[in-house]
Every structure is written in structure tokens, then in C-alpha cells.
Write a structure and sequence with these properties.
Four copies of one chain form a homotetramer.
Chain A lengths: L6 E6 L4 H11 L4 E7 L8 H4 L16 H7 L2 E4 L6 H10 L3 E4 L9 H8 L6 H6 L1 E2 L2 H10 L2 E3 L3 H15 L9 E6 L14 H4 L4 E2 L8 H13 L6 E6 L6 E8 L7 H11 L6 E3 L8 H4 L5 E8 L4 E8 L3 H15 L16
Parallel strand pairs in A: 1-2, 1-3, 3-4, 4-6, 5-6, 7-9, 11-12
Antiparallel strand pairs in A: 7-10, 8-9, 10-13, 12-13
Helix pairs in contact in A: 1-13, 7-13, 8-10
């Protein structure tokens, strides 16, 4: 297919980790082309100055933000900005006919009061927010296909919800018993200079943070779990920092309603649930996911066990936080919005070791 | 105090990580002196050949195992061997009047049928096994003081039990709801060459293993929890491997019996429980432990939160798996057995970062 | 292009890191298909048992070695075995018309006496060894194109020679002053279980090994340097182990013959030298390579400086030791042998961070 | 000895890595007591807020800088501040009779024009600067003993000079051929938040920086080398960043004047040179230093090889950059200034692994 068949795409927020993943993925996508790279503090710089290893493929200069210009040039815009900025830009872009995929939290909540309770600010764009679809294709593929505006999920919610959804959807566990003990590499903290994220601080150590429902991804997980369970559900969610760059593992515990279920039953159910989900791989019996199996891919690997002594199921769900947990999933959503195969242009084989 | 005041100590199993910690700690202990270093495969080698960085302080040659000779020379013997060997040596040493501290699993179980169910073999030394005291001083200090034979706890049980004990002892939580999601550095796997422990395999990744009660530390945790709760308790325990060398963090979840309890209540209870425990530090409100705060020390750091939304307590307990989780705790036990201050000769200040 | 256009390829030695890279790369190569996977100890196992993350794409069973069968099925065979095995298999395969690419040291030396001096054994296959071409395309592209047998370079020689060649070829430096201080991730040690390569041993530390010309890659570097310089050259080569999985950086020092040369002169010369080398990227003035820019790609990144105070040039050359340093380069050679574009099917964009 | 025998010590710049090492080391020193902890941005905070793991031993509040108060309370002051601040404080402290040990570059140069050429600013305190002694005890022990003002060496110079000094002092090598290829953990960059030092950026990668004599430690190394050689010497120095927290390895190359010297000759010379240096350990023949052997200790480990093929000596020198490379060495200097054993209160046994 020639370049005539390529869709022009813009990225706003080019310099962060979300931005560089998107740029990297666009280079290998057969139907997309990068038409605009926008940044605030980095405007005027060559992208290759920030990421020299892409210099042989990406010659673009980062441009200052100009919504008119973006909309003129692009059919699709990825917003990869700190929380609280996207909702000021998206309306203009939507009005001008662009499809918008937002990687921040701005469009993840159907009810804006939840958003403001956790992220602050005051917003009066409930109407637009309601048109946004939560960009988790394994649950909302059909709605994403119709969407003009997608709020891409957080990294923790992606790993957690893919691990937990079959259980909640089929009513196999008591939702209130669900505990998500999640562990993430430090790239989830972004490219901002923070003392706690220095290698000298974060290497050789392991700790929890935002314990007891204090992490902003909690309401996002609960929103979807409540949707699946059919009633409001509170989920125990604890994030931890792993001394590594990429990857999230969510270890999920829940009490089975039917203690007679064994591991193989649940694996069958999971395989059926994800039968048409090319980016979820349910592992064979007795195999547990390593986060690095997913590194650099858009895959989610799931393993599980049933503990007959405690009547609990333990699900392990592993993703690359910057791929399936962020930029890769955004491209997957766009593939669906465009009516393409949802695997198009996305990497599915990790390098090991 | 002169060397006349030093107690001669033997270490059997000098070449592994347990052995080298013990040797290292003995060098700084004011009342102990290394009188015998024994090994099987390494016999005849200078210890400094295995660990050149200790060469300026440790000139000993590793000797072949000879129980007579050990008992002649030593008042105290540390057995730091693979499981299933200590119980063949300890009786002779005990008979000859040595105090014995075993770092393996051989003497951790009051009921040998539990041991054989998890570790195999057939043993008929129930009588001796019953004289052994479980070497967790924060729970069994008085019995350790009287013991001639101590079975030192595993690393995971140490972190887990120190985090969970105040809750179980005081009846504050429903024991059956306790979930221990534990994470360990790879030194816990010992100095044996195993593919899965290669840096190339274990770095940049995170995974669970022995999920659903398959880890041999499970019965050890349950034995003590049952003792504390006053009835048999099953505990959900899941170990994970962290890409770092040292350290364990146990994140512990349990449902509060009294949902009115707040974080400060529990911190008060923990501080009281550990008032006389110099090696446990309960952290201030809102502070969570980093494993590297404990690295190279015999300390256990504990932080906790109550989640009023779910009525759960979340306890985080951090140790150095080779110190408080192994060799340091063995020395702490010996200090108690000798009637010394239990902090004697043990490091309490980590280097940071 | 249909599968009819794919060339059937065999891999002997499927279970090591060389093998898994080759398998992974074949999956994405548009003109190759995996027709045979052979192993000794792993024969009979599914490849996905060893590398579960590739299970959704690789269903092959590892077969026992049977040269007849391999030659029947494959036009091309990659030998990815410990040193000293390939030369016993290659003759049969060559005779039956296969192209053979050997990843071991067996066919890297034009003079077998050099091989046996460093690798031992006695070989009488000088005639076949002489037909082998050293598989460094940037220097020997034309000969590789004609070759039936390629001895693929070691990882250190690849990084070192790409950094040093323009200087030697143009006679810009005094060859005897060349010092190569090289640093490698631990995956270079392979998938064999060795104590020194355990994460617990190799993490948080840095050391040299095989100092003073004791590393087996020394004669390989010297063979090519002598070829380039036109006379026998001895090179100082020191390898070090970096606590990371992938990547080699070679820092190369040499005294300039003409002290008037400045950085920009040399960059111009390097750019010219590598004008037709799609897998070598000479970095802009003042930019030095990070090994992770090359991770998962077949690229070599080169940066350099001239020190006017000492009249030395310092060249930094970075590769992924398992890609351009091993499996990727083998595929690049095959592309050339088949008359295809040498970039075909090889990754050129790293994921960052 | 009672507390009456303890010397009151002040630390200015308490919050950085230099500060926390000093505080940590003071806690274990039998003759020093912490009398003042000063900081600018952190004034008013409890030290334990910054470093909770020391909370059980350090209850001090960080105080605002007040030179009068410091001099009133302290006999000795450690200045652990960014470059360019110490020289504004030291004169007052010296005048009031304090001994001053500066961990910055301010007092490392006998000739202030070298300082200003590399660090900028204009200073007119040449007279005071000339009274400062360069705090490398293995070379300047006698002068340190008499000093009131010590400029403590940088981390790279410490490792480099300890490795190179015996060769230069004895005239065994051609000074102009000396090349120092040095590798450091990232803690050398301090506790400032910098993007390049984030774990996400600096992990899994290896690179050089400040190549070709651009690093500020170059003139410091050259000053001492010139002193030892008896004439001005230019040294090739290249620093690299290792993905680890602590440790420096300097790999040093130089051409032997007498090609007949073998490894054992040089080891004898090194052992003699460091006979009275308790903090330098020359390793046995064939053993090379690991940086982690020195971690948490004040030791420098040295190994070496002679390459008879190239007539070069290769010296490897390993230290903990924050201990012998910074705070530990400062305490060692103070021990000497006070007339105490220079090993007093300093750790000499690393924890391994």
C-alpha cells in the first residue's frame, strides 16, 4: 500500500515517555503517518535531540501547540499530556472532525464528579466527557469502534481489569473480596525529574506507595468493576515500585463463590472470555507470567491458580506499562476506530532475555 | 574485654550465603570468635578464595566435617546447610554439650509430620525436634533463652510473622482473611547456579512463583499463626521475585474485626507489642518501609494503613532476607541464649542509598 | 509475497540465547521460514516450554540432531552451539548444498592454528575453514555475498572492529596504541547456570575479567585489525561485566598520527566509511552512544571525540550483544548471501526507556 | 571511654548523599559526636524525615546555617555542599579554631587558577587555599596530620590515584601513556533530581560522558600525577555511568618503562607502597576487584596484570564512591588530624552478596 493510504496523525506532548512510544510505534505502522509533533517546553527542538536513537527515522521538529494547525493536518490526534490539559484541547479538535485519543485521566470517567474528587479542578464539560469511551478494547471494543473520543486507561487499571474481568463478568467471585497487589517499573512515573525516581534511590529496593486506596487509579478500576459486577464495588488496590524500567504485574486475589471450581475450569473460562482478544494470552496451566515476556509488546499475559485450601483464585496479569498500559493500547484503540485489524502495526514478540 | 571472654563458635556450611553472613557478623561481634569453618565441597580451600573481600580479616581454611572436632573446639555451632542434613548432625553436637542453631528447615516444626509432608524424607527424631525452639525472638524470646537447640525461621516467615503477629495475638483481624503478598530479592535462592536466577533471566522482570500455598514457607507461617490465633489457621501466601539482591517486603492484608479502628490505633498497638523488641521499628504514620532501609542490618521495619472503605488493615514489613531473615537473626538468638543484650554485635544502620 | 517465496531455515542449538534470538527474528522476517529447530538436551520439548512468551507464534517441537533431515528440509542452517561442535557438522551440510552460518568461533579464523591455540582441540579441516568468510558485513560485504559458509563474529569483536576500522583502514592512528576497554551485559555469558552470573553475584557490581589479552575474542580482533593495517597488530583488549542484561559498549583509545585532526574531521571520515552501511549510525558531534539505544535492534551506534591535549581519539561503539553482536548480524549476513536488502526483517528502532 | 571523650562535630549540608554518609558514620564512631546538622533548603526538618531508616538513632533537627553557632558548638566541621560555597564559610570557621574538612572541590587545588578554569567564579583566597591539604592519606598522610583545612578528593581521583600512584612514584611507567577508563554508579551524581539519573533512563544501559578530558576531576588527577612524576603530566580520563548505585572501578593502562617486569614484581611493589595503608588492599595474583567488595566500607581494592605482549600494565582499582570516595575518606583524614588510628570507626567489611 502506498503512502496515499496513510492517515495523518498528530501527537501532542511529544517529549515524555508516552510521546516517544507513540512516535516509535507510528514508525512501524503501515497505515499511519506522523504529521504533527507538538510540545510546550520542547517546542523548536528536533525530536532527535531528545531521543537520538530515533534520529535515523524521525527528523521532525517539535512544534508549538496550535490546535487549528493540528486539526488542519491531522485526522487523528493523540494527547499525551499531564492530567487536566486534554479536556481544554479536545473539544476544539473534535469539533473540527478529528478523532481524539487521550492518554491522560481526563476522559476516563463517565461521571466528572469522580474525576474532580481525585484529580481536582472544576470542569463543566460533562456532556463531552460522556461521549468518551473507556479505551479498554477487550471490554468495550464495540463502543470504541464507534467513538470519536477515547479516554485511554491507566497502566495499573489495564493490567488489573484484564486479570479480574472474567471473574466479575461471570459472577465467579465475591467482588468485595478482590485485592489487587500491583507492582510497576519506574517508567510509570514519567520522564519528570523526581528524587524518589533516581536510580540511586529506586534501585535495590522495593516498597509500596499510595496504600489503602490512595492511588488515583483506584476509582478507575472500581468504575469498570462496578460496571461488570452490576453494582458498586470497592476494590483494594496497592501499588508498589519495582527496581526495573518497564512492566506491571498485578497479583489479584478473590474468594470463589463456588469452591468446587479448579484451575482448569477457570483457565477454560478465561480462554473463552479472551477468545477474540488477540492481545491477551492466557498461559498454560502452571505457567505464571514474567513481566519481561510482555516488554516492548502490546500483550497482556495472564496466569492463574486456585487454592483449594482457601477457596481463593489468584490471578497474575502482566503487561508493559508503556505499551498495553499506555501507547500500544492507544494505537490498538485507533486500529479499532478505523475499522482495521486491531493488531495492525503493533509488536507482539518480546526480546528475551 | 579480652579474647579470654570470647566464646568459640563453629559454622558448618561456610561457603553459601548463610555462611558468609555468619562469618562476616562474627568478625564484628565482641563476644564470639570463629573457631571452626566447615564445608563439604569447599573443604581444603581458604575461605578467602571464595570471598576475597574478607581476606584481610578471615584467614581460615575450610575444614572437612568432623563432628568430634567441632564439638571439641566449639561451644556453639551454626548449621547452615541444605534442608535435611542438620538433623543428622545436631544430636551428636547437642549430646556433647554444644548449643546448636540451625538455619535450615529441619528444626522449625514441632510436628515432624508437617516437616516430612513438605520436605520429604523420613525422620524418627520427634523427641529431639520437640526440644527445638522456633528462633523468632520477638515471639519466643523466653523459650529461646532456655534452648539448647534453635530452629531459625525462614526469611519469608520472619517478615510475614513480624508484620502479622500483633493483629493475630490481639484478635484484631479475622485470621482466615489474611493474605501475604511477599516479594524477595534473588539472594534468597542461595549461591547455587540455577538458570532462573541468572542476572540475564531475573533482571528487568517480576513474577510470582509457588502460587496458591505451594511454597515451603507456608506451613511455617501457618504453624505460628495458629499458635497466635489459638486455632488452626490457613494463610494465603504468595512469593514473588524482585530484580534485586537483598530484601523482602511482605504486604499483608486482613479484615478488621472492629471497623472502627484507625491507623493511629493500630500503630499504638504495634508500638506496644514491640516495645521491648530492639530489632523491630514501627514507622511513623504515613511512612512505608523500603527494603533497602534494612539492608545489611538486623532490623525489621513495619508500616501500616487502615482502609476505612474496605475495613482492611494493610501491613508492610521489610527485612534483609540474609540478616533478620537468616544469619542476623541466628546471632540475635544466640545473644539471647547466652544471656547477652540481644543487639550485641549486630548492625543496625543501613548505608543509603 | 506468499509463503511460496519463503526460504526454509534450520536452527541447530535452539535453546540458548542465540537460538531464541534467531527464532524471534525469523518470526518477523518476510522471506524466511523456520523449518527445523534442533537441540541436544532439549530435544523432544516444545520450544514454548523453554520460552513461553513465544508460545502464541512458535509451536515447534525441538528435534534431535539429524544432519540428513536438516539438509533435506533446509536451504540455510544456523549453527548456534558451544565452540568446537560446528566444524563437525558444517561439512556435511555444505556438501548437501546448504548455506551455513555458524555463530560459534569455529569458522572465525583463517588460520586454524590460531583457533586451536585459543580454543584447543585438534582440527584438520583447514581447507574448509579457509572457505569461510568472517561475517562482518561492514568490512566483508562482497565476500559474504559469495560465501556458502560464514563464521559470524563474536560480540566484542563486532563492537570493537566497527569502532576501530575506519581509523586503521585509513591509517589515521598508530595501531599499537589502540586500547579497547569493553563492557558487556551478562547475557553474553549465555544461558548456562554459572555462579558468577547469578543476579545475586553480578548485580550492583562492576569488574574486569580476562585482563591482559586473556579473552578469546582478542585474536579475532587482532586478525581483522592486522588485515586492515596491513601488518600484524597486537591490540590491548579488556572486557568488563556490567550489571545489565544486554548491550556492549567499547571505549577505544588510539594515538592519532596527525595531531591536527579534529572531531569533525573524523566524524566526516566515519560517515563516509559507513555511507553504505545501514546498520551503523555515526552520532552527531558531542553525542555519545547509550547501549540501550541499540537494544533489540541490529544497529551499532558510534560516537567519538578527539582530545587535543593528548592527541588521542576516543571512539565509543555500542551494540546489542545478542543482535548486531550475534543473531541479528547472522541474519544480516544471510540477507546479503541471498541477494536481499541487508536490512530485511531486522528491527531498527529500540524501545526507550 | 565516656562521652566526655567525644569530639563535637558539625555537618553543613546534611541532606545530600555526602551528608547522610557522614551522619551514618558518626553514629558508629567511638570518638566523635554529632553536635550540629545544618542545611539550607531542609532547615527546620527532622533529619529522620529525609532518611527515616536512621530515625531510631538520629533525632536531630536540621538547623539553618549560622557560622557563629557552629564554631561555638563544634571542634570539627565537615562541609558537604555544592562546589563554590565552602570557600565562603571555611575562613570564618578556621579563624574560630575549627578544623575544617571540605568535601567539595573548593580546596582541592593548590593553584586557584586551575580551580577557576574548571569551576568558574572568581576567588581571591589563594593564601587560604594554599594552607589546605589534599585529603588523600595514602599520599599525604603527614601533611594531613598537621592540617587545619583539608580538601577531600573527588571520588574518581581517589580510585584513579590509588591505582596509579605506585607506578608514577617509582617511575615505572611513561606517564603520558596513562589512560584511566573509569566507571561509576549513579549515586556519584548526588541527590538532585536530574532526568538522566532517573532509574528509567540510567538502568539497563551503559555510556561514557565528559569524554576527552572534559570531566572536572581531570585537573585534580593531573595535579597529583604531576606531583608524583615530578613534571607536568596530562592524563587521559574517561568516566562512564554504570547502572548501579554505589561503586567506582578505574581500569588504568600505562606503558612500562622496563618491559621485563612481570605481574609479581609489580604486586610486590604495590604491597610495599601500601604497607602502612590500612585502607588499601592489594589483591593476590590473578584476582581482580569487584566494586561491591568495597561497598559500605572505606577500602580500596587493587588488582593488576602485566601484558607481556604489549608491555603494558593494567591496574584495576575499586572503591565505594560515597565512602573511600567521599565521606569515609573525610573521616579517615579526621582520624589522622586528631592523632587517632586512621581506621577508627570506619567499616571494613562489606556485606556480600
Amino acid at each position: 500500500m502506498g503512502d496515499m493510504g496513510r492517515i495523518p496523525v498528530g501527537i501532542v506532548g511529544a517529549s515524555g515517555y508516552g510521546g516517544v512510544q507513540l512516535v516509535r510505534l507510528l514508525m512501524d505502522h503501515p497505515r499511519l503517518e506522523l504529521a504533527y509533533l507538538g510540545g510546550e517546553s520542547s517546542a523548536g527542538k528536533a525530536f532527535a535531540e531528545l531521543y537520538p536513537h530515533l534520529g535515523h527515522r524521525v527528523q521532525q521538529i517539535i512544534e508549538p501547540l496550535d490546535l487549528e494547525k493540528i486539526a488542519d493536518r491531522c485526522q487523528v490526534v493523540f494527547l499525551s499530556l499531564p492530567n487536566g490539559l486534554a479536556y481544554k484541547m479536545a473539544p476544539t479538535l473534535l469539533e473540527k472532525g478529528c478523532k481524539v485519543l487521550d492518554l491522560s485521566a481526563d476522559y476516563r470517567f463517565s461521571d466528572l464528579s469522580t474525576y474532580t474528587a481525585w484529580y481536582g479542578g472544576d470542569r463543566d464539560d460533562q456532556a463531552i466527557a460522556e461521549t468518551a469511551v473507556y479505551g479498554l478494547p477487550e471490554l468495550y471494543r464495540d463502543r470504541i469502534a464507534e467513538a470519536q473520543l477515547v479516554g485511554c486507561p491507566g497502566c495499573y487499571p489495564t493490567a488489573s481489569l484484564l486479570g479480574l474481568s472474567p471473574l466479575l463478568k461471570q459472577g465467579l467471585v465475591v467482588p468485595e473480596t478482590a485485592i489487587i497487589d500491583a507492582k510497576s517499573g519506574t517508567s510509570g512515573g514519567g520522564r519528570q525529574a523526581k528524587v524518589g525516581m533516581l536510580l540511586a534511590e529506586a534501585d535495590n529496593t522495593f516498597a509500596a506507595y499510595n496504600v489503602a486506596g490512595r492511588h488515583r487509579h483506584t476509582p478507575e478500576i472500581e468504575q469498570v468493576c462496578s460496571d461488570l459486577a452490576g453494582h458498586e464495588v470497592l476494590i483494594q488496590f496497592t501499588p508498589h515500585l519495582v527496581p526495573m524500567v518497564r512492566g506491571i504485574l498485578a497479583t489479584i486475589y478473590a474468594n470463589l463463590r463456588d469452591p468446587g471450581l479448579v484451575r482448569e475450569d477457570l483457565l477454560t473460562i478465561y480462554n473463552a472470555f479472551y477468545r477474540n482478544a488477540p492481545w491477551v494470552r492466557v498461559l498454560p496451566s502452571g505457567t505464571y507470567p514474567q513481566t519481561k515476556w510482555a516488554a516492548g509488546t502490546n500483550l497482556c499475559y495472564i496466569g492463574l491458580e486456585v487454592d483449594p485450601r482457601t477457596d481463593r483464585v489468584i490471578v497474575m496479569s502482566a503487561i508493559d506499562n508503556l505499551m498495553k498500559g499506555q501507547a500500544g493500547q492507544a494505537i490498538q484503540c485507533l486500529n479499532i476506530m478505523m475499522g482495521w485489524d486491531e493488531t495492525l502495526g503493533l509488536p507482539q514478540l518480546a526480546f528475551y532475555p
